[in-house]
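Aim 2 progress update. The chain analyzed this quarter is reproduced below.
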Amino acid sequence: MLRSVMTYRISSSFETMRNHLIRHALSATLLLGALISPGAIAAQGRASDQGTLRVRIGATDVAREEFSIWRGRSTSGGLGFRISATAFYPPRRTKVTISPSVELGPDSLPRLAQFPPVTGSDVRTVAQFGPRIFILRRFWTGGESFREHPGVTRNWIVDDSVLALYAVPPGTQTGPVRLVSPRQGWRTDYQLTNRGLEETAVHGRLRELLHLVLSAGTDVRHLWYDNDDGRLMKVEIPAQRLTAVRLLDSAMPGR
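Predicted structure tokens:
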């Protein structure tokens, strides 16, 4: 009995120490990532994609998004990708901008996400992903908050106001995926379905694109990618009457 109690205490102490070390290591990495310029990976790598999305609710233009995907060494360690995006609301005479950056590992899974303050706010959001843990921190003038959440195998950083974050999926295989929106403060499990090549209209013309579908109850999101180079071409969220379409050279305003 005494040996069992001692074993339990040792195991319990070890578990506590292990959790403390994990928390300390992730917090240190998180702080380091938060202090490094979002352009660090851009300086070390090359842009593999750059584009502009036209965002509409119904037939009304509500935003313009400009984004780049960089390939190189990430600030969180190792090779990977970085998505840098800026959403302009409204697209002309902009009043609000949202400019997140997300670092992905070579497996396209998120490692670090940073959301600078949105126009009119001083709250900065930073999210760090470890093998079994997800840490969310918010900083504002005079304070900060810190939360830990259990991790899952496949996460996808999203934001309903920055659809360009769908540009790099965490794999295209059918299966579960957790959508995490650090800035908006929600995380939801979805089912990802790869429907292969299907036709959809892009700028009035039918195109055959890779079609991924995210579904969670009545919330269904349609994501369309160029099958040759993997570029995000279109996002549809019917429940919000929201559509984002990539602007091609011929579709750019004034051309």
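Residues 2-251 form one domain. Confidence is low (pLDDT under 50) at residues 1-44, 250-255. These observations will guide the mutagenesis experiments scheduled for the next reporting period.
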